[in-house]
Description:
single chain; 352 residues; alpha/beta; Rossmann fold; elongated
Amino acid sequence: MAVPNKSQYKQDEEAAGAVRTVKSRKCYYLKMLADYADVSIRVVATVFLADFLQRLFRCVVEYIRYSRYYLPEDRLWTILRRGCTYESKHIYLAMAFVIAGLSRISVTGDFTVVIPTALYLAQIPLYWLFFDLSQSTLTYSHWIRENHGLDYAAGMASNYFHGYLKLALPDTKDDGLKHRMAVYEAKNNVTFGVDRLIILCPDEMFVEKKLENNSTLLDKAEPLETKYLHRAGVHRPFKHDVYRLNKKIDGKTYYFAMEGATPMLSFFDAMESNLSATWQMKELKREIWLKFCKHLKHLIETWPETRNEVDLLVYNAHDQKGKLVDIGELLIAHLKNKTKVIDEISDDSFQK
Length: 352
C-alpha cells in the first residue's frame, strides 16, 4: 500500500482552501449585491411614498385655498389629476423597481426585505425639506426652452402671430401683403427687395420708433395700403411701413416693408419698469428673446398662409467692437442672401 506524499497532501489542502476562498468571495459579492438591491428598492419606495404624501397634501391645500380657480363640477377631479400626474420616465422607473422587488421576494421568500423599515420612513421629512434642492436659475432656463407654450416668450410669440401676423398678411379679398406690395410697385414704379414683411428682432430687444434714425442707408417712404378687419368688435386697421435704401444695389433702388417685433419692445419696456421688472426677467432675457424668435419662426413656417410672408431677421444689435449695427447694412446682406434658409435659431447662430 502506497504512503501518501505529505507535500502532495499539502498542495491538495491549499488548492481546496483556494477554491473555498473563491467561493466565499463570490458569496460575499452576491450577498453585497443583493443587499444593495434591497436597500435601493427600499429607498425608492420611501421616496415615492414621500412624494405621494406631499402631492396629496398639496391637493388638499389647493382644494381649500384655491378652489376659485376651478369649476365646481370637476374641481376635485381636476386637482387630483394635476397633483398626481407623473412623467413617463418616472412611471417606467417605478414599474422597473416594482418588478425588481417582486423578483427579490420570489428569490428570498420574504416580502419584508423590500418593505421600508421605520428607519427609512423616519427620513421622509428630510425629503420634504430638500425635494427642491435641484432647482436653480439654470432649471428655469431649461423650462423656458421646452415646448409647452406656457412661458412668457412663447406667449408673446403666439399673441403676436395669432393677433397680428396671421390676420394682416394672408390674402382674403385682394388685401394680402403680396397683393398690396404688387399694387405699390405698379403705382410708384419701384421694386421691393423681397416680397415679404421683414421683422427685426435684435438681441437687445429695442427698436427705434423711426427706423431711419438707426441707419444712414434708410429713408422713410409711403406706407402700404391699410388693411381693415373686424376683430373683437373693432374695425381694426393693419398698417405696414415701407423704407427705401438710398444706396443702389446693382444699379437699382430697393424698397422694404419692415417693422420691429413689437412684443420684444414691450418686453424691453417691462424690464426697464419698476412696476413689472423682476430679477428672473433680467437674468433670463436672452433665453426669452431666443425662445420668442424660435417659437415665432415655427408658427410662421407651420401655418400655410404665412410661411412665405415673413422674413424674421434675428441679429445682435452691436458688432464685435460694440458699435450699433446699421439696419441698412443688414438689409443689403439679406438681399444678397435672400435665398438662404436658416434652419435653426440658437446661440450658435450669433457671435459676440
